[in-house]
Amino acid sequence: MAIEIEKVEALAPDQASLAAAAKLKKPNLWPLLACDAAGLIWGECQGSGASPYRVICSEADFGYKCTCPSRKFPCKHTLALMWMRADGVLPFKTEAAPAWVGDWVARRRPGAGPARKVAADTEVKASAARAAVVEPAAEDPKSAAAAAAQRERNKADREAAIRSGLDELDTWIADALQGGLAAFMPAASERCRKIARRLVDAKATGLAGLVEGLPADLLALPESMRGDALIERLATLYLIACAYRNQDRLPGPVKADVRQTVGWTVTRDALLADPDALRVRDRWMVVGTVVDVQADKLRRIETWLSRLGEGTGPRFAVLLDFVPVSLGKTANMYSIGEVLTAELVYFNSPAPLRAVIAEQIGSAIAGERWPRPTDGVLGAIARLNDVLALRPWASDIPFAAHGARIVASGASLWLTDARGMAGLPVRVDEDDVVLPLVEVDDIDAFGTWDGHFLSLALCETPLGRWIAS
Hints:
5-stranded mixed beta sheet, 16 strands, globular, CATH 2.40.50, alpha+beta
């Protein structure tokens, strides 16, 4: 079974481990990279010590072992070994497995004690081959119970760490409100960076990301809006913290959403294995893409999909991918306007939006015109309010309306209905691409609303399709 990059990403314990692994994909750090015909790969990675770390992985079941002292599983060395195998760029020399690989393989077999030394490399290779293809036996009940108990202890430790971090966040929010905007903004980056680091230490990585992005989000707004926006964001952080402390009193979907917002992750494999997860099979059109580079040197890719069929289920979905910046431009991104037939599985939420593709039928193809949305501008705004009622901490909510216009009001642009009776401010920049839409009638628009501005992604107009560049 070949290793795929998606599997490496799913196995990573966190984004930081993935970023650290990307830095290890250098030939000079690996004096040994090898494999055999049985699906075993191994290598030696030079660390800070005199002896390199020895890393092993089975492509058959993704079992692994590394001699480094990391408490993360898998560690960055294991992730890097798998990643290099998935890339297929660095050569893995095919050879007989050395004794330390054979020892690991032998210990994986049920009832095995210390591995005996073999007389020839061929016998080690045969042992590896047999271990790689046999089905794993049932785990020893005592070992399984001990492992389960350890997982519960780890979970309890993380819960306690998160709650401690939330207490520090409360104090930080109170200090920020007491000091006011004038005192907050000059040192915003440093103040946010400090509490974000503390939240990372407390394993509340989702909240840490929200805090760390606060200064940039405020500076992107007109100065007159920053005071109110700061209060709104601090109130949102406090709301999330309160919801987390009271999560056992929340409905299941809300609890799941809060935990994901704070930093608990659901792996792709766990989501696909969940029998209660919402699944929608339909034709989908790509109506928006957003690419950002994060502070951890990972490129965050949002792909927005609009359901084309008439069946039940959410009308929109967003796919999130994280790719190291070192990989360069992402060649596998979908393009706006492409249509794919796929089954999506949604993460648990009171307003399901984020999803993964469980199965895609065929390739994405150039699509037709985006079907006219059912809502006018007023109805689309009402849907935004519906989502916020279910998820008050939501950001980047999908917006779709028919019969819209873009009108100029001073230096601002607004998306309104045909009569100008309802509308939302449109995000603009110095080299704005929205200007060609001004005063065009009967626009079908898709974009995302962040609570302050509408970011347009795709518009179908009487003059043809417009997409954000």
